[in-house]
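>> received
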Amino acid sequence: MIRTQIYLTDRQRSELAAISKALGKKQSELIRETVDHLIDQAGDKRRRIVLQEAAGIWKDRTDLPDFTEIRTDWNRI
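>> returned
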């Protein structure tokens, strides 16, 4: 692990201390869990954005086969 210093407001520090005591966890552990949660959320959002940007990127291509026809052939089998 890498040591990192952060600045908290008085309110943040006192609330974190209270939560830490209530859950029986160290404050540093709670901070790491919260950072992990934020990273997971951001990753999900980034994936959705990438998928949205990729949607329809082949719609104007003329060098591709007619997928509707190919799909119809598959459905007959």
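>> The chain has a mean pLDDT of 90.
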